[in-house]
Amino acid sequence: MSYVRPNIAAMAAYVPGEQPRPGTSIIKLNSNENPYPPSPQVIEVLRHFEDELLRRYPDPFAHNFCQAIAEVLGIPADWVIVGNGSDDLLNLLVRACANDAARPIVYPTPTYVLYRTLAALQPATVVEVPYPDDFRFPLKELVAVQGAITFIASPNSPSGHVVALTDLRDLAQQASGLVVVDEAYVDFAESSALSLVQEFDNVVVLRTLSKGYGLAGLRLGFGVANPALLAELFKVKDSYNVDALAIALGTAAMRDQAYKNTCVAKIKASRTALTRDLRELGFTVLDSHGNFVLAMPPQGNAEYLYLALKEQGILVRYFKQPRLDDKLRISVGTEEQNRALIAALAGLTNAA
Ligand SMILES: *Cc1c(COP(=O)(O)O)cnc(C)c1O
Question: How many angstroms separate the CA atoms of 6 and 2, rounded?
């Protein structure tokens, strides 16, 4: 006898990347966090945060934050919805749109595992369309499903590839349901699907402050879509899904684009170096548009290397699932962290 719904009892829990306690001397390259701290302007707002704002409920629509986003992206503020991380918005979209097997949730794989978890919670039927090995976009197969939502992570994790705007436009045109473009890693890429939001009323673009802005601990993300769709989503949203501190700090982060751009430039340069160094060690590495790389060791012994690195205090991500269990997803760290990783891998691959 279970006290919870059958689909909850039957489903597997989502397993986030390991989070060692702060202060332990671990090189943490497993959750695609930004290796650099948030903007000094964010810390400034944190230090002078008014107590009074904690006593009151926060602005349910986070107008100040939406305004800052609107100015940076050149869109109207009423095209923005704010979430407790973009995970909150993914959850909200599934709850709002998924109903039964007639209209499943569909997405190409391998991708962000949380899409499957959120569908299982409903429960909603899931159709997973495998990417071919060259990551050509499986447009026809996705469209054929006519899902309630088609999720596309671009740049995708863990592959790091970007889906071409023309492919996303074709998808938006041919899909009868929502097309949600999850742009968690867009800050590290050269293109975005943001323009499609104005072209198509079924497109939602999701962004986060967790990766590019170095604020994963704050939990703040946002979505861009037309106001008619947002009006429906607001009915489903928790009234106070984003707290007062997150609104204030997120606004400061968004207003300091120069700082974000400096961090992103450093990370992109490190990504190039890391890719080159891994290839020199014999790894097969896909060109990445995120702040991580997917790397296949020359001997395919990814699980061994994951465990051996962990012994040495270096955490990377290992996915024990078909097509990924011979690879490691490695977040781009500081230059010093990346050097330590390469030195450790050089020792391990020579020994093997
Ligand atoms: C990190 C990540 C998210 C979640 O971001 P949060 O805003 O921290 O919830 C969403 N989608 C993808 C693909 C991610 O990698």
Answer: 8
Global model pTM greater than 0.90: yes
Describe the chain by its helix, strand, coil percentages, rounded to 5: 45, 15, 45
Using the atom order of ligand 1, give the atom closest to the CA of residue 211.
1
pLDDT digits (tens, 9 = 90+) for 97-114: 998 767 999 999 999 999
**Tens-digit pLDDT profile for residues 132-186:** 999 999 999 999 999 999 999 999 999 999 999 999 999 999 999 999 999 999 9
pLDDT of residue 351: 58
The binding-site residues of ligand 1, defined as CB within 6 angstroms of any ligand atom, are 32, 85-87, 112, 153, 157, 182, 184, 208, 210-211, 216, 221
User: How far is residue 59 from each of residues 52, 176, 217, 245, measured CA to CA in Å?
Assistant: 13, 34, 20, 11
Q: What is the atom index within ligand 1 of the atom nearest the CA of 210?
A: 8
Domain ranges of the chain: 6-30+258-351, 40-257
- Nearest 5 degrees, angle CA 341-CA 114-CA 227? 120
Q: Check if CATH label 3.90.228.20 holds for domain 6-30+258-351.
A: no
User: Which residue stretches of 79-192 are H helix?
Assistant: 86-97, 114-121, 139-145, 165-174
Distance from C-alpha of 42 to C-alpha of 4, rounded to nearest angstrom = 41
CATH no., domain 40-257: 3.40.640.10
- Give all strands (DSSP E) within 6-159, no chain letters: 27-29, 80-83, 105-109, 126-130, 149-153
